[in-house]
Amino acid sequence: MSRCLAERSIDHVVLERGEVANTWKAERWESLRLLTPNWLSRLPGYRYDGSDPDGFRTMAETVELIERYARTIAAPLRTHTRVTSVRSDEEGYAVATDSGEWRCRTLVIASGAYNIPTVPAAASAVPTGIEALTADRYRSPGQLADGGVLVVGASATGAQLADEIQRSGRQVTLAVGEHVRVPRVYRGKDILWWLDAAGVLDERYDELDDLNRARNVPSFQLAGYTDRRVIDLNALAGLGVKLIGRLAAFSGSRAQFSGSLRNVCALADLKMNRLLNTIDEWASEHVSGGLPAERFAPTVVEASPPLAIDFARAGIKTIIWATGFRPDYSWLEVPVLDHKGRVRHDGGVAEAPGMYIIGLPFLRRRKSSLIDGAGVDARDLSEHLAGYLRGQPVVDAAEPAGRRSAAR
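Structure (tokenized):
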């Protein structure tokens, strides 16, 4: 967004509570790599030009990318500047920080969607003696107590942690709710190559019948491993991970689970095959030669998965909540939040004059939560912002540019 505002000669400042790439530095586990291939890390004025376009960045490489980009575009950064409140005033917004106050006509909220871990209500009744931690506090298997581990949540984070911890020699039990199964490689190419080429990632928010549903779809069961291995439930079960249904409650030393495992797995298989059908239809018109279409074995689930586990008997000593995150807008004192505490917006244009938001799932496109999607969303919204500053009516984010703002 800073790059796009600068292209339009719009004065702005970027306020950061920590350092550049702070979340990547402080809230990720050691072995994590980006789920997207290097070539897909496209930003305004930046394209990957290294020797490993199909590789996956480590955390250190991701931090370096963001730091280098900030330097290259000469972003007007104010690091270690925590915003404590944002209020509307006669001319726009008053932004209070721990190092002074800023005033601006327009405001861009780029604080992200993954600030506060969400855990189920059952977390308040975790059995005595069991260590429970959220995914942002996990660093490596070595920090965990000896014994079994219950990972709750089977999207990208949960599947990766289950894979890593099981391989470390600890017995993992994975509590599985709704999830999205996809292959890492399909017909000889990365699955994200197909989604990019076929235009799936570019699908717009205003083209959907159920946008709320699309914005809450779990992340793909993918990992950026160098061997490109699959981490779907069949692969995890093959390693010895025990699959069980969604966590429902605790009772003493026992955890209770729903009986929905077979149904959610069957639904994930069905949706994967629909996606592969979409890819195959596109490939039949646009790709000559190449590998043929393929389908994958259904998820294998035991006939009667257990509905309860006694932690003492199972030897489980640790619970990891891989159950997602939510944004933190505790500092935002403008009445734009819905009943769930999320900013009401239309494709990133908030329900307050001159306020914008970026960096949320399916903000404007299916790829909005990817690095690649941030750039095109920023171009759209900066055009809208520029039109707003010029006092021109703006119908959609495709209006001409203008002159002045301040961004967070």
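The radius of gyration is 23 Å. The chain has two domains: 2-115+327-389, 117-321.
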